[in-house]
Amino acid sequence: TYTLIIAMLLGLVFTCYAPTGASAQPGLSHVYMRWGLPEGSSPSEYQVRFRDIYALNWTDYGGITDSSFVITALDPCTEYEWQVRARCSGGIWSDWTAVQEIRTKGCNPTYCFSYGLGQAAYINSTSIAGTSFVSGNDYGYGGYTGREYRLTEGQALAISALATPPAGFGNDEALYWRYWIDRNQDGDFQDDQEMVAEGITVGTHDFAPASISGLVASAKAYRIRIGVSPERFPQVCAVESNKYIEDYAIFIDMAQQGIKVGTKNPSQQPIPEPAPIRPGKQITDASRLVIGTPYPNPVRSEVRLPVDLDQAGTLHWQMVDSRGNTWKQGSQFMDVGQAQLRLSLDDLPPGLYSWVIRTEGGHRVVPVLKH
Prior knowledge:
By secondary structure, the protein is mostly beta strands. It has one helix spanning 2-9, and strands at residues 20-26, 31-36, 45-52, 59-64, 68-71, 79-87, 100-103, 115-117, 122-128, 131-134, 141-143, 149-152, 157-164, 174-181, 195-202, 206-212, 222-229, 239-241, 244-253, 283-284, 290-291, 302-309, 313-321, 326-334, 337-344, 351-359, 362-370.
């Protein structure tokens, strides 16, 4: 206040504008904020204030010299608000920017929370099913289940990772790491053989590779979790200091040789060799048969399959299990245009099935998972 009065008396009125373009990107337990330079000035520092939207008091963070800032150790699925201001020449502070509201990720979780508070080491890159990915630092937790990884049934799943250690980390210090996979897809990592590897690295930041076999084709993705800590083996479902977790997902497709021509089955009917497809992808063949996505999938009772024919004809179908046994089969005359196959699976045991669709011009196979 006194500085401003003196400046005005001297005719030297300093104008300090607020930062521009303030925005934020949320994570599970952190918020990354950034902003632009104020108009016509180069501030000496910035100040951020931050709070839960239901809190009365702000928490201030000062002495910020960059135009970005990260606040960690936050709660998942929680709404916060924040502002930033600049300090200009003569020690004058700008006005605060407009209040920005942000919500951390983690609402409606399908798996247990696991992330680090005040994490130091982090997973810099991974290799999953032969695909490399540089993830970088996500401040305690990186969720990458939206990335598409795929394997064919019968192939082993290879996993490896590389960590970036804490600052000042010595060559004689250890990093503790673990890999998990939800083999039975029940929403946790607590069952037998679901922690697939663990190790301690000293003098190197590479995690030893692991090979996972025995994964069966499924319309649902398998969840993979990788963790690292410089203090202890990371726990799969815990919020801990100095820990870093990343989650991935992988689909296992049916193998092309999964159903062979002439395979014997309860009805003694030959089964055409399938052409595998990925769940959710439309398919077409030379006969202009277009097949949509079966729904619901996974299914408990009735499953439906959209089809589209450019000429009328008879459509033959079979429901075949992973061993080549036909549980249901039938034929249906279809008119030109869009229609729908409807099939009750109440009398089928749980498992992965192949819905084989045949016309005079060809055949296709779609996977159906019965719960």
